Amino acid sequence: MSKHTIEMTINGRRHTADVESRVSLSDFLREDAGYTGVHIGCDHGVCGACTVMVNGEAVRGCLMLAVQADGARVTTVEGLAAPDGTLHPVQAALRDEHGLQCGFCTPGIVMTMAALSAREKRPTEEQLLNALSGHLCRCTGYQGIRRAARKLASPEPAESTGGDSV
Ligand code: FES
Ligand code: FES
């Protein structure tokens, strides 16, 4: 299998590697770059657990090849909080509203909501829920996730921190 040299910026750090053409972005981020916050559930685009940001857009890492992200700016859940550890508003809302149980689906949900929040600044609850409609939570903890979305969409959202979000 031929290899390709790729370079991308992951959570603000340059990462260069030789990868086989067939390697997915999610496998690359976990196995090569060490960002194990990228969770792989179905591995074929159904559950949303592997969602990361690529150039600011929410992308399912299992549906993208690592070589397709050559030159891109990638953000995983590890790059979302501020350098001092202050949570991103999406993370804070999920924590405050108990929007996670085992946490397996959580990184993907966080990245989808963070990408939308970065694009829309103040997304509506409907926009957030639409964006989340493609995410599966095997713990079925959807009510807490919905409350977090409602909180983000409220006139006084959780405090903003910055971090490496888009
Ligand atoms: S692991 Fe990518 S969508 Fe399920
Ligand atoms: S919190 Fe367990 S899969 Fe969603």
Q: How would you summarize the topology of this molecule?
A:
Layout: E1 3-10, E2 13-20, H1 25-32, E3 51-54, E4 57-60, E5 73-75, H2 89-96, H3 106-120, H4 125-132, H5 142-153
Helix pairs in contact: 2-3, 2-5, 3-4
The chain binds FE2/S2 (inorganic) cluster (2 copies).
Spell out the key features of this protein.
166 residues; alpha+beta; Ubiquitin-like (UB roll); DNA polymerase, domain 1; 5-stranded mixed sheet; globular; disordered C terminus; binds FE2/S2 (inorganic) cluster
Question: What does the model show?
Answer:
This protein has a five-stranded mixed β-sheet with strand order 2-1-5-3-4, with helices on both faces. It is an alpha+beta fold and 166 residues long. Helix 2 packs across helix 5 (142-153). It folds into two domains: 3-79, Beta-grasp domain (Ubiquitin-like (UB roll)); 89-153, [2Fe-2S]-binding domain (DNA polymerase, domain 1), CATH 1.10.150.120. The chain is globular, with a radius of gyration of 15 Å. The protein is built from five helices and five strands. The structure holds FE2/S2 (inorganic) cluster (FES) (2 copies). One FE2/S2 (inorganic) cluster is lined by residues 100-106, 137-139, 141.
